[in-house]
TrEMBL record:
It is a multi-pass membrane protein. The chain crosses the membrane at residues 15-36, 42-65, 77-98, 104-125, 132-149, 155-176, 188-210, 216-240, 247-264, 270-287. Keywords: Membrane, Transmembrane, Transmembrane helix. It comes from Mycolicibacterium litorale. It comes from the Bacteria. Belongs to the EamA transporter family. It is found in: Membrane. Residues 18-148, 158-285 form the EamA domain. Its main location: membrane. This is EamA domain-containing protein. The lineage of its organism: Bacteria, Bacillati, Actinomycetota, Actinomycetes, Mycobacteriales. GO terms for cellular component: membrane. InterPro entries: EamA_dom, EmrE-like. PANTHER family: ACYL-MALONYL CONDENSING ENZYME-RELATED (PTHR22911), SOLUTE CARRIER FAMILY 35 MEMBER G1 (PTHR22911:SF6).
Length: 298
């Protein structure tokens, strides 16, 4: 569910095209959540998770076959496992959350992940984080609090799951960033889909729920939406760097809110509007702070 970057096949920069492709990629991510919510009416979260990864694995295997199995040799298997475990757990948390709370709320809380990334980076690397990055994260967290409105009610289990998904996604995103420094994209995707499928199998067995034939259409569509999101983001990074198009991750929040409003008749509340603006604004401040050079290399 996270993005990666590569220099393989890089073309002259075209920021407009890169931004358009990234926006399309995160529209597909919004479709993943939508299709999971529809599919969840017929079967369990574990089954959704399995189909999402298995279909992508089926399509990535021929690519690896063409490149040769020697292309899978890696010295970063631990990082691949970390990415797969956190990414799979994040998707499970999101799929569960959308069965409990409105799709837009679950997506906003989960995709507040970039706000957690400075904390994850600091815990892992102990490198100093720019003050502006913390300020941006603080603004974003204020938006999360507005959406949760803890002063008026207790936390819902779906909200807790979505927030857990955000932390897991932040770790997965950082893992991909570190992998992208040395690993080609095909290898990153193959290990992610392979390990995620392996992880999803026992979950699906324990959580198995028979589903009617009409559910096949939705489950297959779920897998293809995930596959297209990955393909589009890979192509986008051939035209623009991850740092420049990364902020477009927030498109998924807007797309999902519109879909939730149209399909499930959950119009955004005033708190949702303000909270979304703060999450996106805070995230953009944090991203710009990370991208900007600071004296002393901070």
């Amino acid at each position: 569910m996270s993005t990666s970057r590569t220099t393989v096949g890089h073309r002259p920069e075209n920021l407009a095209l890169g931004a358009a492709l990234t926006t399309a990629a995160f529209f597909c991510v919004a479709l993943v959540g939508t299709l999971a919510k529809v599919s969840g009416q017929y079967t369990s979260t574990g089954v959704l998770l399995l189909f999402q990864n298995l279909i992508c694995l089926v399509f990535i295997v021929p690519v690896v076959w063409r490149d040769g199995w020697s292309s899978l040799r890696t010295s970063k298997i631990g990082l691949h496992v970390t990415r797969a475990v956190t990414g799979t757990a994040c998707w499970y948390a999101l799929f569960f959350a959308i069965t409990q709370i409105p799709l837009a709320n679950a997506t906003l809380l989960t995709y507040s992940a970039p706000l957690w990334m400075p904390l994850v980076a600091w815990v892992v690397t102990r490198q100093r984080v720019a003050r502006a990055t913390w300020i941006g994260a603080g603004i974003g967290f204020a938006g999360v609090v507005l959406v949760l409105q803890p002063q008026t009610r207790s936390f819902h289990v779906g909200e807790v799951a979505a927030l857990a998904g955000a932390v897991l996604l932040a770790i997965a995103m950082m893992s991909v960033r570190w992998l992208g420094a040395t690993e080609p994209i095909t290898r990153v995707l193959f290990y992610y889909f392979l390990l995620s499928t392996v992880l999803a199998v026992p979950i699906a067995i324990v959580d198995w729920q028979a589903f009617p034939p009409r559910a096949w259409v939705w489950l297959i569509a779920l897998g293809f939406a995930q596959l297209f999101s990955q393909i589009l983001i890979v192509v986008a990074y051939r035209y623009a760097s991850a740092e420049k198009v990364g902020p477009f991750i927030y498109c998924v929040i807007v797309f999902t809110a519109v879909i939730d409003w149209i399909v499930w008749h959950h119009p955004p509340t005033l708190y949702m509007y303000i909270g979304t603006a703060l999450v996106i604004g805070g995230g953009l401040v944090a991203v710009r702070a990370r991208a900007a050079p600071t004296p002393g290399g901070g």
